[in-house]
Amino acid sequence: xxxxxxxxxxxxxxxxxxxxxxxxxxxxxxxxxxxxxxxxxxxxxxxxxxxxxxxxxxxxxxxxxxxxxxxxxxxxxxxxxxxxxxxxxxxxxxxxxxxxxxxxxxxxxxxxxxxxxxxxxxxxxxxxxxxxxxxxxxxxxxxxxxxxxxxxxxxxxxxxxxxxxxxxxxxxxxxxxxxxxxxxxxxxxxxxxxxxxxxxxxxxxxxxxxxxxxxxxxxxxxxxxxxxxxxxxxxxxxxxxxxxxxxxxxxxxxxxxxxxxxxxxx
Length: 266
Hints:
about 270 residues, Arc Repressor Mutant, subunit A, Beta-Lactamase, 2 domains, 8 strands, elongated, disordered N terminus
């Protein structure tokens, strides 16, 4: 599925821009240069319009034409744009407004975390109000195997990566509820993959529960995690599942901003 903006009615979009972007996407999917008439056919445009777009892209260095065959192909200039984006794009800045909305919906603290060296690192915390303060702070670290957000990262691991994590970290118990058996952890991660969210049922800290969802980048890889945590007496199953759609939609919308195209409105 393409970016959410593609859902807009044609009258709400610039049709010329839409055609140009469609042309770029089609060229990016080809394994060899194409003739002008083949590009026009794939784009659903007439030859003269297609040539006008190709000429503009060629003038700006995004498309080149083979001198012998007269066929067109994309250059690597688009990679420069992508590199600039990955260099300067800040997931925290994108996610922060959504964290505030989720914290308000749950009336609990909402966190944004990344993975670093097989460890959860919290990079943003938003409290619902001054009386409901999170025990987590920016810069705090936590294990992967017994936190909701950590499980979203582990669920993205390959089998080999997961085996290495288990061998290195040893799955220590933090509470009586921590999953320390590799078979139980693997079963839990299958559930996370299927459900699209993860739970921490007092596995990291007695008296605290958490629910988390992955944030994906343009490759589909889990780039960060969005989580809500609070006392178990407030974070009941009823409370979590009543507000879970807010969390899932926020994570999906942030992922869409990060370039993940498999976005659907919950």
